[in-house]
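During the reporting period the student researcher (J.K.) took over the structure-prediction task from the postdoctoral fellow and processed the backlog of single-chain submissions. One of the processed entries is reproduced below for the supervisory committee.
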Amino acid sequence: MEHFRDYLSEGERVGRRYALRLPRQTPRGAAGLALGQRAGSSLEFKDYRDYQLGDDLRHIDWNAFARTDQLSVKLYREEITPHLDLVLDVSRSMALEGTAKERTTLALAACLATAAANAGFGHAVWLMGDDIRPLPGGNAPPALWGELELSHRGSSAAALTRGTPAWWPRGVRVLLSDLLWVGEPLLAVRPFTEGASAAAVIQLLAEADINPPEESALRLIDAETEQMREIYVDAILARRYREGLARHQQNWHQACRASGAIFSTVVAETLLRDWKLDELIAAELLRVT
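J.K. obtained the following structure tokens:
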């Protein structure tokens, strides 16, 4: 990848304008070191609410029960370990030829790592292919990262279901992928969010992923398997493709919501035009410094 370092430098420059923040929508049952935004298990009292089946019995206020004969639990500010685990899908589809996908993938990864540092978070970068492995130098600023290639053949989906690595407990996790996998999203999201205080899934697509050219003959080459197929894309086929993509995105959105993660989609070419990260700001993953 000839422009690998240039893409990382671009992302670092953008990242200096932002700081990582903790989304309000976070996985349940987390506790760590830094105070967060939701109720958790630190020592700072926040509020009461009625007892619900499954609540931790240690949080019941027995003195209030003696007075009112009603079960209530104490809510506390959540503690969160200040660390980002950034999981980067290195499938060949993330470097789709003729698009800005490769450049945006690397630049956005560098941007998020820089934003984490601005917020006082440590970070680690993980490469997801056949398995999930650490990027050499991935704890350092992006300029010091080891070489990485978006060249994995085959689906990366199974890597999340075969057992996750020793991610930072109760930290923040972000998955950066196009999510163009076959399979049930919930099976991938659940292990990704387990033990995290906050989790986000960012779907990065190219314009070509969203809007295939109509009324044209295409020779499709699978980015992972290199299998070739020639098709003619008419208006009906293009519409079916867009409808299928919308259903796929909705399934991921629902899986993330069920697992307590946030879900956001960004388009490579749109992002590169002005580097406005409005989607991630609206999702409360980033804030402007």
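The committee noted the following: Confidence is low (pLDDT under 50) at residues 28-33.
J.K. will present the remaining backlog at the next meeting.
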